[in-house]
Predict the structure.
Amino acid sequence: MARCVEHRWRAGYLVVATFLVGCATWEPMQMSSLSASPALAREIRLHFQDGRILDLTAARVSGDSVVGLRGFGPSAPGDRVAVPTHDIVSLEARHLDTESNLFLAFGLLVLTVAAVALAVLRADHS
């Protein structure tokens, strides 16, 4: 029985972690930020004139280029790329939505407590 409960808790932690990672927003950045600071946001999205989009991690400005690792997350290939700044039409930075994360975490906590209480009540009546 204890092993079953342990697996349920692990599954619950996985669900919470998945939701917390997913609550993020993309906020536009000023193109002037490319020349203002060599370090950019941890995760950025570059937009090009032809409609292509490129997500970068650990991006920074080096000379007249934005340099970073392609993609982000555990499945990202992580190839190092350099993109000339004059090819970039717009850029966005990924920010965690703290308010939504807290609301979601609280909601999941309430649901977890309710599920455990229900399981205890059912076990007492068996």
Observations:
- Residues 25 and 42 are 13 Å apart (CA to CA).
- The helical segments are 2-22, 33-36, 98-125.
- The longest strand covers residues 53-62.
- DSSP finds three helices and six strands in the chain.
